[in-house]
């Protein structure tokens, strides 16, 4: 079993396994057939043996009969010759030649001896024949041979045959026939002995030899027993039965037996030889008996022959039965083999082929080909499997079709597709449904994303990219139609404050309101988009000209800037608008850039208004861009320098300070005043570079003055722009510059404009505190132009207030005078020094002295001048030889003659 399992796990093809199984009965059959064949061969061999033995037996039986004949005839001859009876007498009287008969008998014996082929036996017999020629009648050596050699031989042969036959299965008939043969032979032999014994007694008389008489009597009884023996064996109705009946009713035998009985029973019986006399009449009777005896012997031999023939026939029957069995077994084996092979073939066709088909389809399925189907045939189990497989494959196909429909997004087709059955179908249906839902969701999500991607979540208007895309399309349309597009950049003013002060929700409400107001004031087809926190873009097409664009812009401003109640109190939005016309340009970014510049201009110009980007603005801006690169170039090319304007200490009467003022000798242009570029630089990061440069250069000057008798105690004031103060790292920069130059920070004053402080009070205070901690003094420049509250001023780290020169020039006006007075008093109140700048005349000086100013600066005490001039200027002032500071100084840089102060400067009188 284990082996078969092993065999099956060898991945044998099912056909081979089936064949093996089919061949199993063949093995049994072969075993059976083999055994049968062996049996039959054995049986045939046994039959052959029986046949050979019975043939041999027949030869010996015939030999014995012939020997008995010879004994019989030789005895007769010896009796005749012993009584001197001529042979011719017997022949003439009884019709047969004794010598001829003997010769015949002898020939027969020789013939059977030769047939028996036993040389020892032949020798024994020939010796017995020679001896018997001159032996007395009773003790014939032939008789001895017959009794002691031949008879036991025949007996043993008979027993041999019977044993053999008895060993044969179903050979009872054969055994019986053999026994019959033995009994018949015994009967015949008894008869011959009886005849011999009779003749002896009949010739010599019972009295002459009583032993012979007894022997005759015994033989007679033996004969009757022999008859009974044979009779018990003969089957009534058989062909032996006929011969047996013939023997029983044989007249010769019956008469022989009668004469024997007479000899034995008749007391009057007279032997042929009485004394030495031979009775011739007795001899005649004897001759008659002789004839009967001969006939009787022949009859008995005849029975023997019939039995022998029957035996032979019986052996033949047995053999043919064996042969028939061979044929039967052979045919049976053949038929069973044919049936087995046929059934193997049929089962192969009916089971293996369908299974192979199944396997092939399964193989195709595994390879991903689900187009195949398998024929439904074979046994019911295989048919069930095939049907199931076909259904499964069909299901797979349907599933595939569905999957393909799904993959192609043909969701509607899916409803019409044939749906797969079973759990697969259910799973698929679920999957389809889920996919349908998720695809739907995805589609919805995509739409939403697309909308979100192009629209502003807060206001719902197109976002920046969508607006730009729209503008791009509008520009193309305008070019084709030869019309123009207006782009308006709407920027809310102070939106940060709305967020900071009123919260983001209010900011959001404001943005939504502005968006809807913009949409309301546009035409259909115009676009309102949100492109930044508080920046909207309005694209209007077509527009005829600048005027129409400006009109639109005004309309938008009017609508946007109307007050509105957002549910949390009234508010009034404000916006600046930069407008531009496409003017045939195709790049959206160019037009947007123009609008962007314009809105910057609008903001600069004071907010709540429209600026239009026209050619003038563009060229101005271009010039500014030009200026920027020129400044950068100038810084690198050392076109800048510092001039110094002295300050007059009212308490000491000395020029003990100077303010560094920047001068630019622009290549190819000449000297340019700070107003022309500082204000511009302050709009960009350039101012930081400039301020840094000034600080470094100023400190270099200050450091170099340390060893100069005239300048060593001079204070230096350096201007720092508000933008630089708030955005840069001023304190570190100043510290680095001080370290680098070795200047004394106590002699440095940093001037910061009041407006810069207002922009980001905390940051400014932080940096100024740092500077002050280094010993640097802080001055608030242009004081009075801003609106610094007293509380702020109190908290600022400030040392000096510089009253702006616009007040100085109008000191004759009482309001300006009282303002300056107020500043001076307030400054002093807070512990600050107060410097007044723009002092050109002596009256101004007197007034300011009267008002208690600490320090004065102006043309009255010296114009801004190069360092070289400063030394002489200070020297002259110290020596009291400085008659007119302004006049001496007037050779300096101030080429701009429109400067109102310059004309007055000529009238500056000597301070001394
Ligand atoms: P500011 O700081 O108020 O400088 C004083 C300005 O008044 C100087 O003009 C000076 O020439 C002018 N001035 C002085 N005395 C008189 C006078 O008696 N009458 C009249 N009418 N004017 C007088 P400047 O040099 O043209 O500078 C103009 C402005 O440029 C300065 O005003 C300052 O704000 C800025 N500035 C000058 N140099 C620098 C600098 O190095 N850095 C920075 N950030 N700004 C500077
Ligand atoms: Ca200044
Ligand atoms: Ca000033």
Described by strand count, sense and barrel closure, the largest sheet is: 8 strands, mixed, barrel
Query: What value does the average pLDDT take?
Result: 84
Side-by-side strand order of the widest sheet: 10-11-13-14-15-16-17-18
Hetero ligands: ligand C2E, calcium ion
SS field, number of helical segments: 33
Structural class: alpha/beta
Poorly predicted regions = 884-912
Cα-atom Rg, whole angstroms? 82 Å
Distance between the first and last residues' Cα: 141 Å
How would you describe the shape?
A: rod-shaped
Total count of strands: 18
Helix content: 55-70%
Strand residues, percent: 5-15%
Any overview of this molecule?
66% of the residues lie in helices and 11% in strands. By secondary structure, it is of the alpha/beta class. The strands form four sheets. An eight-stranded mixed barrel has the order 10-11-13-14-15-16-17-18, surrounded by five helices. The chain is rod-shaped and about 235 Å long. The relative contact order is 0.04. The structure holds ligand C2E and calcium ion (CA) (2 copies). Ligand C2E is lined by residues 645, 660-662, 673-675, 678, 691, 694, 719, 721, 781, 805, 837-840, 858-859, 864, 899-901. Ligand C2E binds next to strand 11, helix 21, helix 22 and helix 33.
Set down the secondary structure blueprint.
Blueprint: H1 2-9, H2 14-82, H3 87-94, H4 98-116, H5 119-133, H6 141-167, H7 172-204, H8 210-233, H9 239-248, H10 251-265, E1 273-274, E2 277-278, H11 280-366, H12 380-407, H13 411-416, H14 422-454, H15 464-481, E3 484-492, H16 495-502, H17 504-521, E4 527-532, E5 535-543, H18 546-560, E6 564-565, E7 570-571, E8 575-581, H19 588-604, E9 610-612, H20 615-636, E10 640-649, E11 654-666, E12 670-672, H21 674-682, H22 686-704, E13 715-720, H23 722-727, H24 730-741, E14 748-753, H25 754-759, H26 761-773, E15 777-783, H27 790-795, E16 800-803, H28 805-809, H29 814-829, E17 833-836, H30 842-851, E18 855-857, H31 867-879, H32 885-889, H33 900-905
Helix pairs in contact: 2-4, 2-6, 2-7, 2-11, 5-6, 6-7, 7-8, 7-11, 8-10, 9-11, 10-11, 11-12, 12-14, 16-17, 17-18, 21-22, 22-24, 24-26
């Amino acid at each position: 079993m284990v082996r078969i399992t092993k065999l099956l796990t060898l991945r044998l093809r099912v056909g081979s396994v089936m064949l093996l199984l089919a061949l199993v009965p063949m093995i049994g059959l072969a075993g059976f057939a083999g055994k049968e064949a062996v049996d039959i061969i054995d049986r045939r061999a046994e039959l052959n043996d029986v046949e050979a033995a019975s043939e041999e037996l027949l030869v010996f039986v015939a030999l014995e009969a012939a020997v008995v004949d010879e004994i019989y005839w030789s005895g007769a001859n010896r009796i005749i010759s012993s009584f001197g009876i001529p042979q011719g007498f017997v022949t003439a009287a009884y019709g047969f030649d004794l010598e001829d008969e003997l010769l015949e008998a002898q020939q027969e014996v020789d013939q059977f001896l030769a047939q028996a082929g036993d040389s020892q036996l032949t020798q024994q017999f020939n010796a017995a024949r020679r001896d018997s020629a001159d032996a007395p009648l009773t003790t014939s050596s032939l008789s001895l041979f017959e009794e002691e050699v031949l008879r036991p031989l025949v007996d043993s042969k008979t027993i041999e045959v019977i044993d053999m036959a008895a060993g044969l299965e179903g050979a009872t008939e054969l055994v019986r026939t053999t026994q019959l043969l033995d009994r018949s032979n015994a009967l015949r032999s008894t008869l011959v002995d009886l005849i011999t014994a009779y003749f002896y007694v009949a010739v010599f008389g019972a009295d002459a030899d009583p032993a012979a008489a007894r022997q005759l009597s015994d033989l007679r009884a033996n004969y009757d027993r022999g008859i009974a023996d044979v009779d018990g064996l003969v089957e009534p109705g058989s062909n032996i039965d006929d011969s047996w009946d013939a023997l029983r009713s044989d007249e010769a035998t019956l008469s022989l037996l009668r004469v024997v009985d007479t000899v034995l029973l008749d007391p009057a019986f007279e032997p042929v030889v009485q004394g030495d006399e031979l009775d011739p009449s007795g001899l005649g009777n004897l001759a008659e008996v002789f004839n009967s005896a001969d006939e009787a012997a022949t009859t008995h031999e005849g029975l023997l022959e019939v039995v022998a023939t029957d035996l032979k026939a019986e052996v033949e029957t047995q053999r043919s039965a064996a042969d028939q069995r061979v044929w039967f077994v052979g045919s049976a084996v053949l038929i069973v083999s044919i049936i087995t092979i046929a059934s193997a073939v049929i089962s192969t066709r009916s089971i293996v082929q369908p299974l192979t088909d199944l396997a092939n389809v399964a193989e195709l399925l595994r390879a991903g080909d689900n187009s195949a189907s398998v024929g439904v045939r074979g046994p019911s189990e295989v048919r069930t499997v095939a049907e199931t497989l076909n259904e499964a494959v069909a299901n797979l196909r349907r599933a595939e079709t569905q999957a393909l429909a799904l993959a192609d997004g043909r969701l509607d087709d899916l409803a019409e597709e044939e749906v797969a059955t079973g759990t697969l179908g259910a799973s698929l249906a679920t999957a389809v449904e889920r996919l349908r839902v998720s695809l739907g969701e995805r589609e919805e999500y995509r739409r939403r994303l697309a909308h979100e991607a192009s629209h502003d979540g807060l206001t719902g208007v197109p976002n920046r990219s969508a607006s730009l895309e729209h503008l791009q399309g509008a520009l193309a349309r305008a070019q084709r139609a030869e019309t123009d597009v207006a782009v308006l950049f709407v920027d809310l003013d102070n939106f940060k404050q709305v967020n900071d002060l009123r919260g983001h929700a209010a900011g959001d409400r404001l943005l939504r309101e502005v968006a809807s107001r913009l949409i309301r004031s546009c035409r259909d087809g115009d676009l309102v988009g949100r492109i930044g926190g508080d920046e909207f873009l309005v694209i209007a097409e077509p527009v005829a000209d600048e005027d129409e664009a400006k009109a639109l812009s005004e309309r938008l401003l009017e609508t946007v800037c109307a007050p509105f109640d957002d549910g949390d109190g009234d508010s009034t939005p404000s916006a600046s608008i930069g407008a531009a016309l496409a003017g045939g340009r195709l790049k959206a970014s160019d037009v947007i850039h123009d609008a962007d510049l314009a809105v910057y201009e609008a903001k600069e110009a004071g907010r709540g208004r429209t600026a239009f980007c026209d050619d003038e603005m563009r060229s101005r801006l271009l010039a500014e861009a030009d200026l920027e690169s020129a400044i950068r170039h100038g810084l690198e090319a050392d076109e800048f320098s510092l001039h110094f304007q002295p300050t007059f200490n009212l308490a000491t009467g000395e020029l003990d300070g100077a303010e560094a003022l920047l001068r630019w000798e622009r290549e190819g242009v000449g000297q340019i005043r700070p107003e022309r570029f500082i204000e511009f630089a302050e709009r960009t990061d350039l101012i930081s570079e400039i301020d840094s440069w000034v600080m470094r250069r100023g400190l270099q000057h200050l450091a170099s003055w340390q060893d100069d008798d005239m300048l060593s105690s001079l204070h230096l004031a350096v201007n720092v722009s508000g933008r630089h103060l708030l955005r840069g790292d001023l304190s570190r920069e100043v510290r680095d510059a001080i370290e680098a130059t070795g200047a004394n920070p106590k002699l440095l004053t940093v001037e910061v404009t009041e407006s810069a402080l207002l922009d980001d009070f905390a940051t400014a205070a932080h940096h100024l505190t740092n500077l002050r901690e280094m010993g640097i003094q802080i001055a608030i420049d242009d004081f009075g132009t801003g609106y610094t509250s007293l509380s702020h001023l109190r908290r600022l780290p400030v040392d000096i207030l510089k009253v702006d020169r616009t007040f100085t020039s109008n000191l004759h006006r009482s309001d300006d005078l009282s303002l300056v007075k107020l500043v001076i008093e307030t400054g002093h109140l807070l512990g600050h020094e107060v410097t007044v700048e723009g002092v050109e005349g002596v009256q101004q000086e007197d007034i300011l002295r009267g008002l208690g100013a600490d320090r004065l600066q102006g043309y009255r005490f010296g114009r801004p001048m190069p360092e070289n001039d400063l030394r002489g200027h200070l020297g002259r002032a110290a020596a009291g030889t400085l008659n007119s500071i302004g006049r001496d100084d007037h050779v300096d840089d101030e080429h701009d003659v429109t400067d109102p102060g310059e004309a007055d400067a000529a009238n500056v009188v000597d301070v001394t």
